[in-house]
Amino acid sequence: MTNAYLSEIYSAIQGEGPLTGIRQIFARFSICDLHCIWCDTPESLIKNEFCTIEKIAGTRTFHRIKNPININDLLSHIKLLSPELHHSISLTGGEPLLYSDFLNIFLPRLKKEISLPVYLESGGHRPKELNKIINFLDYISMDFKLPSSANTGILWDKHKEFLEVSAKAKNLQNIWIKIVITNETLPDELIYSINLIKSVYKKNNPEIFLQPVTKTNSITPPDELELLKIQKELLNIYPKIRVIPQVHRLIGQM
Fold first, then answer.
1. 241 closest CA partner among 184, 198, 185, 186
2. In a 3-state reduction of DSSP, which class is residue 222?
3. Is residue 110 part of a domain?
4. Domain with 91 in it: what CATH number?
5. pLDDT band at 214 (very low <50, low <70, confident <90, very high)
6. Which among 65, 61, 91 is positioned nearest to 76, based on CA atoms?
7. β-strands 118-122, 139-143: how paired?
8. Quick count: other Cβ atoms within 10 Å of Cβ 154?
9. Which of 155, 188, 240, 254 has the most CB atoms around it within 10 Å of its CB?
10. Is the residue at 235 inside a domain?
11. CA–CA dist 252, 57 (Å, integer)
């Protein structure tokens, strides 16, 4: 595969996980095979006819090109966004791993021509596709989807396989897990998630980020006391539990 459908390419501040606050180039791929009820980028769920591209990093002036985009053109657009000002490039979506064959060709060229670390944001449910590109990745932000609140079905086995692939990676600098929580999140599912993670990572456990859902229609986050209660309960069984909202939404980033 030498072409891919993307919805956006732009420069912004990362607002999730341990690298919150860094500057990244975001390449947002179109299409997702999950439809989380709180999805904040619904426009990326489908195959977009056009990709919106920032002309100059940080100016919010855009132009559109027709999809699909080939590897040469994607590299050219990234080079125009002042890569030297950025910490890394974020492959986000949608679900980037739906384009694993494309990325398997694209990422070696990206590393050679631009030398930016690669940061993958994924739903954590496509381990076979991850395995194709794992050696080109520097950071992974993996989602755990809870059946009670994500509306994605049961993905425990896929999540475990995804972690197992990540645990064997030689070049990966860091992986962490993000769990979006709502006022309907079941504590038993959080505990199950943590035990699953511990079963794969016997040592050097990855950090877990509980992300209170950004209020969308009738979907609301846990209240203040519930957040404190959830974190306390989980800290009793896992030492690396942090609570961070979507900071980029708070500061007006895309």
1. 198
2. coil
3. yes
4. 3.20.20.70
5. confident
6. 65
7. parallel
8. 10
9. 155
10. no
11. 16
Nearest to 212 by CA among 246, 188, 175, 235: 246
The residue range of the domain holding 157 is 3-179
Axis crossing angle, helix 156-167 with helix 187-200, rounded to the nearest 10 = 30
Residue-wise pLDDT tens digits, 61-86 = 999 999 999 999 999 999 999 999 99
Does the residue 84 lie in any domain?
Answer: yes
User: Token pair 């489908």 is at which residue?
Assistant: 46
- 123/38 Cα distance (integer angstroms): 13
pLDDT at 196 over 90: yes
- pLDDT computed for residue 170 by the predictor: 86
Structure tokens at 127: 């381990």
Pairing of strands 118-122, 88-92: parallel
List, in sequence order, every residue forming a beta bridge with 209; answer none if it has no partner. Answer: 178, 242
* Mean pLDDT, rounded, of the chain: 93
Of 41-50, 123-132, 209-218, 241-250, minimum mean pLDDT range: 41-50
Count of domains forming the chain: 1
Contact 47, 31 (CB under 8 A): yes
Query: Which token pair is 109?
Result: 């060229």
Structure tokens at 191: 């505990």
| Residue 22 CB neighbours (<10 A) | 15
Lookup: tokens for 132? 């194709």
Three-state SS at 160:
helix
What does the block give as tokens for 161?
């396989």
pLDDT at 241: 97
